[in-house]
Design a protein that fits this description.
Oligomer: homodimer
CATH architecture of the largest domain in chain A: Alpha-Beta Complex
Strand order of the largest sheet of chain A: 1-3-2-4-6-5-10-11-9-7-8
Structural class of chain A: alpha/beta
Strand content of chain A: 5-15%
Shape of chain A: globular
Order of helices and strands of chain A: HHEHEHEHEHEEHEHEHHHHEHEEHH
Radius of gyration of chain A: 20 Å
Largest sheet of chain A: 11 strands, mixed
Number of domains of chain A: 2
Number of strands of chain A: 11
Helix content of chain A: 25-40%
Number of helices of chain A: 15
Chain lengths: 443, 443
C-alpha cells in the first residue's frame, strides 16, 4: 500500500509512530497527482517545491517537539475560493486571475497552525456560485462531473490524490461532490466554522466543510476546529439507534440509483440493529426550497455588485442576473423567506430526542450526471443548508453506471460532534465496501 | 471655504459642474490631514503620492467621459479592518503588521468602481473587537475618545479630514463614533451590504456602514450600493411624521447629556410638526442585550481561533477569552439567543405602519468619555445591531463638556432608503446647528 492510499487517520497514526515522514506522504500524493491529474484536473495550483519545503519543516518540527496535533503533516486540498497566504487565489474567475492575498483564510489558518500541509488549490465553480465550471472530472469516469461547486476538492479526495480537503456549501456544493466521488464529508452547522477569507456568495448560507475518506478523518478535523463536544451519551453500536428515513420534500427529483441507495442504507442499518422509521417533515418545510432560492439570489446580488460595477463585460450572465434581481425578490418576500427559515430551524432541532437520533436522507438524486456542463442538481442539499444543520455524507456503493452513490446523515444544529460520533457507529453498516473505491482506482 | 470643509454632496456638485477638480479636493484633504492628524491620529496609512496619482486619473476620466457617478472623486477613509488592493491592512494587530491583500473588500470595490478616491486607512480597535485601542483622539477635545471601534473613521470625518468613511458595527462600533464626533452615519440593515473582505468578528452581526456630514451624503453612498428603493411615499416635511420616542431597555445607562439630547430632539421635532409619542418595546426585547453578548462572544471565539492557535502569545487576553468561551455559553443557550433575535426581528418590523414611521432613540449614553482607555459604552447600539435594523445617527448639539451629542433614527429592516429619506426631512429640525462643528474646528 502506498502512502497516498491511506486515510488521514491511518496516516496520522503512522506519522505519530514515526513510521511515515511528512515528506514521504507528500511525495506519494504528489506522485499520484502527477500520474492522475492530467486526466482528472482537480487542481488549479500545486507548487511541488513549496510543498516539499514545508513537508521537511514539519518533519523537523516533529523530530524536535513531536507532532503539533493529530493533523500534523496531513496533506490538504483547498478549494480555490479560499485564501492561502503562500498561494494565489483565482476563484476560477477571469476577473481575479491569480491574487496573492498574503493571508490565510480562517479555516486554512486553523489546520495550518495544527500542522497540516497545504498541498495546493483545487478547481471550483466560479466564485462557488455560477459562471465558469471547474475543469475537474469524476475519477470513477472522467466523462462525468465530480459535482460542484467543490469539484476539485471532491475529485482530489475521491481519486486518492489528497486525503483531506476543504469545500464550501451554499446550496449543495459540498455534500453533492462527496456523493459523486464516493467520499465522506461534513458540512458543519451554519456559522459554526469561520468563513473569514472565503469568497462570499450568500452571507447567511455559505458554509465551510471538509472531505475525508472515513468518519474518523472528519472527526480528526472537527477536533482541530474545536467543535463543541456532545453532552448526550453516544451509543456504542447501531443497535437501538433511532434513524428517521426522510425522503424529504425533494423526493420527486429522486432517480432509481438514489432511491436504491437510500433504501439499501436503511436496510443495512436495520440489519445492524438500528430502528429505522419513516420520517416526514412538517408542511412548512415544503417551502424551504423556494426560500433558499430567494435568499441565495438576493444575497448573491449584493455579493457580486463589486464585480458587476468593475467588470461587467466579463461577469457571467447568471451572476449579473443576481445583481439585477432577475428573480424579482421584493424586500418583503426576502424577509418572509428569512422568517420561514428562522422558524423551521428550532422546529427541526426539536424533532430530535429519545424518539429520533439522526435523519437518513439522500445526498443527491443519483449518480453523477454525464458531461461537465452541469455539476448536478442541488435539490437534496439546499434545504439542509438553509436549516443550518450539520450533514455527514457517507458512501453506500455503486449505481448502475458503476458510479458512487451515497446518503447523508443529519442532526440538529450544534450537534456536529454527536452526529459524527453516530456516523462513526453507523457508517460501517452503510458503507458496505469502504475499500471498493481504493481497489478500483488504485488496483 | 476650503474644499476639505465641504460635505460630500457639495463637493460632488462642484465636481459635476467642473468647479472643483478631484486633485484640488484631495490636496485640500491631505493638507488638513497634515495639519491636524499629528494631534488626532485618525489614520494608519496615507500614501500622498498614490492619492494624488489616483486623483489625477479620476480628473482625466471626468474630462474624457464625465464623472463616473455622483461619488466621482470623493475622498474616502477606510477602517483598517477592511481590505484595499493598493494599501496594506493591519487590523491594528501585532499579528498582522501590514498585509497587502491585493484585493478590495466588496464595499471598497463598490465605491472605487463608482469613482471614489480612497485616501487611506483609518485606525481601529484591534480586529474591531478587542485588544488594542486605536490611538485616535476626539477632534472636539483630544483628551477624549472618538469612540470605537471605528475610531479613526469617526474622528477623520468629524475633524474634516475626509468627507466620507467606512466603519463597521458588531455592537456599537459605527453609531457611537458618529455620536461622539458630531457626524452622520448609516448602519444599514444586517446582511444588506456585503462584508466580503472585512475582518470578521461576529458572522451574524458584523455590518459595514458609512459616515458623512449630512443625510444627503449618506444617500449618495446608499445609491452607489443600490439599497432597495422605498415603496411607501415619503412625507415632504416633518409635519405629521409619526415618531416613536424610545428610551429603550438600556435607559438605566443614560447620562444627563444623553437625556437632554434625546428630549431636545423630540421637542424640536414636535416644534416642526412631527407627532412624537412615547414608545415602549415589548418585554422580550429586554433580553436582547444578553443575547447579543452570547452571540458576540461565541461567534468571536470561532473567529479568533486561527490567531489563538497561531499567535497565542500576542493575542489579546479579551480575545483569548472568547476562544476559551469564558462566558460559558452552551450550545443550547446560543441557540436560544439566536431564537430570541429571530423572533424579535419580524416583531419589530411589524411595529411600523400608519401609527409609526420612525423610532427616535439615544445613540450613546452621553458625551464621549475622557481618556483613550475606553471607547465608551455600546449599550445603546447593541440591541439594534442584533435586530439587524437600519440606524441613522444625527447630531443634536453639544453637551455640558462642549462635546457632541446625538440621537439615532431607526426603521424596520430593509427600509434603509425610506429611513434616509425620512432622516433628510427630520434632520434639519434635529441638528439645530449643522455648521457648529465647522465653525468651531475650522475657525
Amino acid at each position: 500500500m502506498e502512502p497516498y492510499q491511506l486515510t488521514a487517520t491511518e496516516a496520522a497514526n503512522l506519522i505519530a509512530d514515526r513510521k511515515l515522514s511528512v515528506e514521504e506522504l507528500a511525495r506519494s500524493c504528489l506522485a499520484r497527482i502527477a500520474a492522475r491529474d492530467p486526466a482528472i484536473h482537480a487542481w488549479l495550483f500545486v507548487d511541488t517545491d513549496l510543498v516539499i519545503r514545508n513537508a521537511r519543516e514539519l518533519d523537523k518540527l516533529a523530530v524536535a517537539d513531536g507532532p503539533k496535533t493529530r493533523l500534523h503533516g496531513l496533506p490538504w486540498g483547498v478549494k480555490d475560493i479560499i485564501d492561502t497566504f503562500d498561494m494565489p487565489t483565482t476563484q476560477n474567475s477571469p476577473i481575479y486571475p491569480a491574487v496573492h492575498t498574503n493571508r490565510d483564510a480562517a479555516c486554512v489558518g486553523i489546520v495550518r497552525s495544527s500542522g497540516a500541509l497545504i498541498l495546493g488549490k483545487t478547481d471550483t465553480v466560479e466564485f462557488a456560485s455560477g459562471g465558469r465550471k471547474a475543469l475537474s472530472r469524476n475519477p470513477f469516469n472522467p466523462a462525468h462531473t465530480p459535482g460542484g461547486s467543490s469539484s476539485g476538492s471532491g475529485a482530489a479526495v475521491g481519486d486518492f490524490q489528497v486525503p483531506l480537503a476543504f469545500g464550501t456549501q451554499t446550496g449543495g456544493s459540498h455534500i453533492r461532490p462527496a456523493a459523486f466521488n464516493g467520499i465522506y464529508a461534513l458540512k458543519p452547522t451554519g456559522h459554526l466554522v469561520s468563513r473569514e477569507g472565503v469568497r462570499m456568495s450568500s452571507i447567511t448560507l455559505d458554509t465551510v466543510g471538509w472531505y475525508g475518506r472515513c468518519v474518523d478523518d472528519l472527526i480528526l478535523v472537527a477536533e482541530a476546529f474545536r467543535l463543541p463536544k456532545s453532552q448526550a451519551p453516544v451509543p456504542s453500536s447501531p443497535k437501538g439507534v433511532r434513524v428517521g428515513l426522510c425522503r424529504s420534500p425533494a423526493w420527486h427529483a429522486i432517480e432509481p440509483a438514489g432511491e436504491v441507495s437510500l433504501m439499501t442504507a436503511a436496510q443495512r442499518l436495520r440489519d445492524a440493529g438500528a430502528i429505522v422509521e419513516e420520517f416526514e417533515l412538517p408542511a412548512p418545510f415544503n417551502d424551504l426550497q423556494d426560500a433558499h432560492a430567494d435568499i441565495v439570489e438576493t444575497e448573491g446580488g449584493r455579493s457580486f455588485l463589486p464585480e458587476y460595477l468593475s467588470s461587467y463585460a466579463i461577469l457571467a450572465p447568471d451572476l449579473r442576473r443576481k445583481v439585477e434581481n432577475a428573480r424579482g425578490v421584493t424586500p418583503e418576500r426576502l424577509l418572509a423567506s428569512y422568517a420561514l427559515a428562522d422558524s423551521c430551524r428550532p422546529a427541526f432541532d426539536r424533532l430530535f430526542g429519545p424518539e429520533l437520533d439522526v435523519i437518513l436522507t439522500p445526498s443527491a438524486p443519483g449518480e453523477a450526471p454525464e458531461g461537465l456542463h452541469t455539476t448536478g442538481n442541488a435539490i437534496f442539499q439546499r434545504m439542509w443548508t438553509l436549516l443550518h444543520v450539520p450533514c455527514v455524507a457517507i458512501p453506500v456503493g455503486r449505481g448502475p453506471r458503476n458510479l458512487p452513490v451515497g446518503i447523508q446523515l443529519i442532526g440538529p444544529r450544534m450537534s456536529d460532534r454527536r452526529l459524527l460520533d453516530l456516523a462513526r457507529i453507523l457508517a460501517p453498516a452503510i458503507d458496505a465496501h469502504p475499500k471498493a473505491a481504493l481497489r478500483e482506482l488504485c488496483g
